[in-house]
Design brief:
With 264 residues, this protein is of the alpha/beta class. It contains eight helices and nine strands. It has a seven-stranded mixed sheet with strand order 1-3-2-4-5-8-9, sandwiched between helices. It is globular, with a radius of gyration of 17 Å.
């Protein structure tokens, strides 16, 4: 897509980036890479990102291609495009930090697990935080996606699964099928490579999630090779826990985890 034909970007979808403040983090430059989920945008991660930045961490929240524009635009992008953007943001953090932690929501959780599997270095990936990550689904219509994506362009949207009233992640009202099929095609390879994930893992899971079912948690927690795995329950949140009632708990627990895994 040429710049002239590119759709406008939502005003809240701009990438978020801050510099490290080593005086606040034990003298080390600590970076945190946050990835939003499928059909979402950086706005869904911003409160978490701002809280971590205030603690002195260098934070990057990239806008994944096709997000924050239109669902039709997203339908022109694939898993490899989103992963390439995440790798570029990770490289920027590695270049200016002593150590980096990865974190992601939903598809963002799958993306950071993919990166952790591909980057076993303890300085490049000192820890991983996932919030309601998706690497599998029990939905029967998933098996029909190879055909359906050529027949209908989209399904109803999955955005704004949030228990807290009056809060929006500003995601799409439709789910583009070619794009979602690409995401799901990446899952088997990721699940196969989960044993390559050796970094400490903080797994945050909402008690009620109307988007990602329970099949992903046992796959991830049983297959990673991490010896340090912590499961955090979010009892008052739905899928987009990064904007929900449990955000203070997520900030507190993730900050403690980041401080622990990045200490000398």
């Amino acid at each position: 897509m040429t710049p002239q034909s590119a759709p406008p970007v939502h005003p809240l979808a701009s990438p978020f980036t801050t510099e490290a403040q080593p005086a606040s983090t034990g003298g080390r430059r600590v970076g945190v890479l946050l990835s939003h989920g499928f059909t979402g945008q950086p706005a869904s991660m911003r409160p978490w990102a701002e809280a971590l930045a205030a603690m002195g961490y260098a934070v990057e929240v990239p806008r994944l291609p096709g997000h924050g524009t239109t669902w039709q635009d997203l339908n022109t992008y694939r898993w490899d495009d989103w992963y390439a953007e995440l790798r570029a943001a990770h490289r920027r953090l590695v270049d200016r930090c002593d150590v980096v932690v990865l974190a992601g929501l939903s598809m963002g959780g799958a993306l950071v697990l993919r990166l952790a599997a591909d980057k076993p270095s303890a300085t490049e990936v000192a820890g991983v935080v996932v919030v309601n990550p998706a690497v599998a689904s029990k939905r029967l219509d998933v098996k029909l996606l190879p055909v359906l994506k050529h027949v209908v362009p989209s399904f109803p949207g999955i955005a704004d699964d949030i228990k807290k009233p009056g809060v929006s992640e500003h995601g799409y009202t439709r789910t583009p099928l070619k794009a979602v099929h690409s995401m799901m095609q990446a899952w088997p390879g990721l699940v196969r490579d989960l044993p390559q994930v050796t970094a400490p893992l903080l797994y945050a899971r909402s008690s009620v999630d109307h988007v990602v079912d329970e099949s992903s948690e046992p796959l991830i927690t049983s297959k990673v090779s991490s010896r340090d795995v912590t499961v955090l329950r979010l009892p008052e949140s739905y899928h987009v826990a990064t904007l929900d009632h449990d955000l203070p708990l997520l900030i507190e627990e993730s900050a403690a985890f980041i401080a622990r895994v990045t200490s000398d």
